[in-house]
Amino acid sequence: MTEIDDAVIALNRDGYVLLDDMLPRARCSELVDMLEDTHTLMSPYYAANAAAGHRLNFHEDEKIVYNLHNKNLAFLDFIDPEPVFGIVERFLQQGSYKQDDPVVLRQNTGRTPMPGGPAQQLHIDSRLPGGAFPLMAVVTWMLEDFTDENGATRIVPGTQRRAEFPPDDTAVPEEISITGPRGSVLIMDGAVWHGGGANRSVNTRWCVLSTYVRWFLKTAFDFSQNMPADFYAQLTARQKQIMGFTTQPPLDEFTRISARSKEPEPPAPYALPTDGKS
Ligand SMILES: O=C(O)CCC(=O)C(=O)O
Ligand SMILES: [Fe+2]
Fold this sequence. Notes:
The chain is of the alpha+beta class and 278 residues long. The protein has one domain (3-242): q2cbj1_9rhob like domain (Jelly Rolls), CATH 2.60.120. Helices cover 18% and strands 16% of the residues. It contains five helices and nine strands. The chain has helices at residues 3-14, 25-42, 84-93, 229-232, 237-242; strands at 16-19, 62-65, 103-113, 136-142, 154-155, 176-177, 185-189, 194-195, 207-214. It has a six-stranded antiparallel sheet with strand order 1-7-4-9-3-2. It has a three-stranded antiparallel sheet with strand order 6-5-8, with no helix packed on it. Helix 1 (3-14) packs across helix 3 (84-93). The site of fe (ii) ion has 3 residues, from loops.
């Protein structure tokens, strides 16, 4: 049994697996500083949140940096590092033809609950509870220690198999907190019931959240339009595939007929709102 086999067994059984020591501590601190600086720079330009209703759609209690792949070359390292990506890939290839379908990145963000911020409602990220095969994997890179006090992610083990959503505003007794020192990585099935904890500390609890899906599902942002050319040039062939550059829908039947392309199709020109401003 390899490390990957063991992790996939744990994911299938429990809905999550925790890996230690995936990033050096000094690197974690540098990344936290980058996320703070990037949030300060970018958040004044964020679009107003038009989504209705649900508490998870209000963002005053958290800081989020979106689309890390176009902010700093350092974050390209989070696209496909081993063993994390190998585990995610094997997990999400289960049930596909010859267990060989591509796995793509759906979303890559930095997130911290604000000090004093409340716990999130238990929820699933995959939008469909239960299911014969997993659709989504969520990878949480802990850049600061995750503790009970500062809002470690809560999980209800095994609930990825339940064909129902967690109850609103109701405690679930089987819920556990996934604590760990900075540098740890939590991989979850996107269908497991989970939520960020309440941050009762005076500090941040930054993480990088990378979400992966089967290639035919939609991404959270359009990476084919928001990847700067100089960043795209730094990607390996495998990273281009994971970013979806070989699975873009063709314009029409005169351009391409298959859903996948042999060669990656480069992104459209893109500039951040801060580009050219000092
Ligand atoms: O930051 C966390 O602990 C979990 C965040 C989360 O589940 C979400 O924002 O969907
Ligand atoms: Fe979530």
